[in-house]
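Q: A reviewer asked whether we had any structural model of the full assembly, not just the individual parts. We don't, so I'm hoping you can provide one. Inputs are below.
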Amino acid sequence: EAAVTQSPRNKVTVTGGNVTLSCRQTNSHNYMYWYRQDTGHGLRLIHYSYGAGNLQIGDVPDGYKATRTTQEDFFLLLELASPSQTSLYFCASSDAGDGSDYTFGSGTRLLVI
Amino acid sequence: QQQVRQSPQSLTVWEGGTTVLTCSYEDSTFNYFPWYQQFPGEGPALLISILSVSDKKEDGRFTTFFNKREKKLSLHIIDSQPGDSATYFCAASDTGNYKYVFGAGTRLKVIA
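A: Here is a predicted structure for the entire assembly that you could use as a starting point for your response.
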């Protein structure tokens, strides 16, 4: 079954720390996305990619880097984590079809103390 | 920034009742509107979607309505069940753009 797998499921880091969130999809989808979910804001797009080596800036990119190493793998990097980045992070994938729908992972809950 | 406004923020409904969630948007280029359902501890999952060429789409107990003139859409859940308790997100995009803009979500609780 097609899936989007995120790791870790939970992460605690200190302010200024370095964090990498991982996402792997087995959907053979071209597009992958990183969102953060916060109460009152819904889902906000951080970065996305339409293929290996490609990176597009989303709506809330500050403080985040991302890298798409293969069609399957998309990473989100926080190089100097701040408490404002405490959030629930979701990865998603979609096909490069007619605006086909997203398949989301189960999320990574990040706490920056 | 493009916005999709969703209301209410939270809602409690009795089992068997009808739930109505609404969204409005600003960008006239949006032509595709999915609704996602999210249970605690899980990622959102597609519930139902509608294109702007339609004004209504039904899937079992779930119906979404679209009003292009007013730039509004709604999700109706008839015979609401405790298992429908979840957070619901509306989203919008144009079909040439693979980015969605999401609403802030509605947390629904259905009481037996």
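A: Points you may want to mention in the reply: Chain B has a mean pLDDT of 93. Chain B touches chain A at residues 1, 6, 9, 32, 34, 36, 41-46, 49, 89, 93-100, 102-105 (CB under 8 Å).
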